[in-house]
């Protein structure tokens, strides 16, 4: 069911890429017909990681029956089992990190040291990560916090992260001019050596507007409305594919937007309604009245928004974001002011990077259960929408670093070339020289 998401890529390279479609393994806790975390609640990560590990056998059959099987595997960090698979197949495995270098450093440190709780303040200090970030226990990755020693799914997830660290190399969706210190840290602290390739930001090319799916709004109408707005006056509000807002949070955002007087676009995910918590007030009543009053001043999208297209419009100048890494990179590429409200996963580390280290963002709220004060929120939104060009300089500088990284001679392009060269070296080397997992020469 995820195959259509690849169509734009497959169309661009029809003869180079052949998808191998394996049936999604059924698994307890994952309803039939749901094959993507964007259609599932955040806790489903605990089920989906073990489910995907069951692809090992079908993949193995394909591998062994292929006349010219691959000599390297690139796989997402939630597919840690592919490291051992690669070892068995006597090929190399490269981790793909959809998270940035700082977040990955924190995640690796977490699984390496496996802290059992915080200090007396409830904080966990990451002493082996540059700048020694610390987080209260509740801000650590929920996948980590749900680890139970001896539980088969927990052990599989833990092994997956250990295997990520033991893999041959890592591709990071990030760039030198954003967080070099963390990319260097990954180079220095793992056995990856120089095989850390920062090839980002990986964002869609101009003109490609359907990232992650078709939009739930008439795009032409939305663009026509945006065209009537002044430069940078529109606030875009979105919390990615995982966060589920409570009715109280939705109400507070609606009130904040209304009080602020700003123009806005705000997608609300469909299945949020289905997941309303018990005791929440009726979201629909709030939203219907709000949408009526906001006609002409803002757009509420029920479902999927063409986020990249929206962010790139000259009228959009502020992004209230949950700090998902893709949203951050898209925001940087569009040089919009980032207002941070991290919910979970790697988002607290991402917020640390943006707010505390790079100082390109303001922390608006924190946590999946916190409800912001609508008056404070309104003030922050209004201030951001009215900022002058001078206050946008830091984010413009980051955008220019990103563009530089992607230029022909930029750091990310060079990293990609180095990566391709390494792969080519593998291809020309007989497999008998490959060192196995046990460091035995095969
Ligand atoms: O209506 C929508 C909603 C989302 N998006 C796109 O969906 C992606 C969302 O990705 P991201 O911003 O990274 O958020 P999540 O969906 O929450 O991503 C998960 O994966 C990221 C990468 O690992 C982590 O950084 C996050 O914490 C984790 O929640 C982005 O490309 C958005 O442009 C849309 O196009 N339209």
From TrEMBL:
Broadest EC class assigned to this enzyme: transferase
CDD domains, per the entry: GT1_Gtf-like
Keywords tagged on the record: Transferase
SUPFAM superfamilies: UDP-Glycosyltransferase/glycogen phosphorylase
One Pfam family recorded for the sequence: UDPGT
Any GO MF annotation of the entry: UDP-glucosyltransferase activity
Enzyme Commission number(s): 2.4.1.360
Catalytic activity: a 3'-hydro-2'-hydroxy-beta-oxodihydrochalcone + UDP-alpha-D-glucose = a 3'-(beta-D-glucopyranosyl)-2'-hydroxy-beta-oxodihydrochalcone + UDP + H(+)
Family: Belongs to the UDP-glycosyltransferase family.
UniProt-recorded name of the protein: 2-hydroxyflavanone C-glucosyltransferase
Source species: Chenopodium quinoa
């Amino acid at each position: 069911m995820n195959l259509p998401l690849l169509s734009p890529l497959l169309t661009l390279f029809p003869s180079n890429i052949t998808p191998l479609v394996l049936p999604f393994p059924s698994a307890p806790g994952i309803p039939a017909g749901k094959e993507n975390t964007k259609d599932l609640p955040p806790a489903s990560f605990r089920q989906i990681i073990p489910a995907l590990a069951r692809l090992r056998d079908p993949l193995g059959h394909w591998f062994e029956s292929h006349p010219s099987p691959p000599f390297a595997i690139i796989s997402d960090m939630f597919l840690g089992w592919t490291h051992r698979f690669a070892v068995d197949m006597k090929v190399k495995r490269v981790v793909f990190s959809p998270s940035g270098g700082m977040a990955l450093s924190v995640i690796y440190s977490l699984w390496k040291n496996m802290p059992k709780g915080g200090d007396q303040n409830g904080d966990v200090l990451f002493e082996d990560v540059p700048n020694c970030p610390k987080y209260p226990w509740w801000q650590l990755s929920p996948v980590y916090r749900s680890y139970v020693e001896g539980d088969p799914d927990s052990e599989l997830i833990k092994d997956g992260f250990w295997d990520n660290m033991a893999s041959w190399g890592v591709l990071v969706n990030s760039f030198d001019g954003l967080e070099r210190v963390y990319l260097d840290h990954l180079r220095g602290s793992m056995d990856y050596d120089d095989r850390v390739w920062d090839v980002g930001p990986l964002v869609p090319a101009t003109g490609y507007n359907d990232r992650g799916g078709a939009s739930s709004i008439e795009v032409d109408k939305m663009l026509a409305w945006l065209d009537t707005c002044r430069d940078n006056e529109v606030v875009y509000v979105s919390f990615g594919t995982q966060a589920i807002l409570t009715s109280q949070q939705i109400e507070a955002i609606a009130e904040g937007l209304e009080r602020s007087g700003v123009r806005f676009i705000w997608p609300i995910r469909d299945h949020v309604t289905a997941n309303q918590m018990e005791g929440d007030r009726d979201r629909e009543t709030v939203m219907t009245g709000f949408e009526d009053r906001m006609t002409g001043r803002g757009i509420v999208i029920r479902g999927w928004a063409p986020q990249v297209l929206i962010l790139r419009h000259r009228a959009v100048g502020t992004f209230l974001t949950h700090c998902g890494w893709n949203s951050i990179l898209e925001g940087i590429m569009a040089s919009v002011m980032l207002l941070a409200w991290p919910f979970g996963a790697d988002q607290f580390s991402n917020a640390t990077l943006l707010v505390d280290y790079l100082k390109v963002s303001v922390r608006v709220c924190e946590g999946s259960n916190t409800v912001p004060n609508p008056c404070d929120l309104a003030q922050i939104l209004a201030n951001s929408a009215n900022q002058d060009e001078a206050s946008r300089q830091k984010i413009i500088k980051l955008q220019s670093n990103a563009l530089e990284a992607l230029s022909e001679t930029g750091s990310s392009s060079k990293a990609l070339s180095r990566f391709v060269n390494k792969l080519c070296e593998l291809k020309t080397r007989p497999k008998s020289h490959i060192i196995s997992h046990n460091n035995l020469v095969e």
